[in-house]
């Protein structure tokens, strides 16, 4: 069955960095468009970044230049490198493929 397991979240000060990982299994990972979404308390879930199997990417405007999505198809793993983090980036970050979702990892940006 499809499994998506995120890791790498935590508490970081403004301006800091984190790298999220999503270990995928149960499907042909390299073929599919993968995404990172986030959901903050009281807000709707939003698409943060996506990457095709061939490596083409797209980003939410507010994270362009700060976040980088990547994938290692040999390891069936999706990544999100987040730099210059801001308090407004605080949310649960979720990995997604098709209609499948991981459990999410909490990112908190606070001094």
Question: What topology emerges from the helices and strands here?
Answer:
Elements: E1 3-7, E2 10-12, E3 18-25, E4 34-39, E5 46-51, E6 57-59, E7 67-72, E8 77-82, E9 91-97, E10 100-101, E11 105-109
Parallel strand pairs: 2-11
Antiparallel strand pairs: 1-3, 3-8, 4-5, 4-9, 5-6, 7-8, 9-10, 9-11
Order of helices and strands: EEEEEEEEEEE
Sequence stretches where pLDDT stays below 50 over 5 or more residues: none
Q: Roughly what is the average pLDDT, rounded to an integer?
A: 97
Biggest sheet descriptor: 7 strands, mixed
Share of β-strand residues = over 45%
Estimated helix fraction: under 10%
Looking at the structure, what is the overall shape?
globular
Radius of gyration: 13 Å
Q: Please tally the helical runs, counting DSSP H or I stretches of 4 or more residues.
A: 0
The total of beta strands comes to 11
Distance between the termini: 40 Å
Helix/strand/pairing category: mainly beta
Structure description:
The protein is built from no helices and eleven strands. By secondary structure, it is mostly beta strands. The strands form two sheets. Strands 2, 4, 5, 6, 9, 10 and 11 form a seven-stranded mixed β-sheet that branches. The protein has a four-stranded antiparallel β-sheet with strand order 1-3-8-7, with no helix packed on it. The model has no long low-confidence stretch (mean pLDDT 97).
């Amino acid at each position: 069955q499809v499994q998506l397991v995120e890791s790498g979240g935590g508490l970081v000060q403004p301006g800091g960095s984190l790298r999220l990982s999503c270990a995928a299994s149960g499907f042909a990972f390299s073929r599919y468009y993968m995404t990172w979404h986030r959901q903050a308390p009281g807000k709707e879930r939003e698409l943060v970044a996506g990457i095709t199997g061939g490596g083409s990417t797209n980003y939410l405007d507010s994270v362009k230049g700060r976040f980088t999505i990547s994938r290692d198809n040999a390891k069936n793993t999706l990544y999100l490198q987040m730099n210059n983090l801001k308090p407004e980036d605080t949310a649960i970050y979720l990995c997604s493929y098709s209609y499948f979702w991981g459990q999410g990892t909490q990112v908190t940006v606070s001094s």
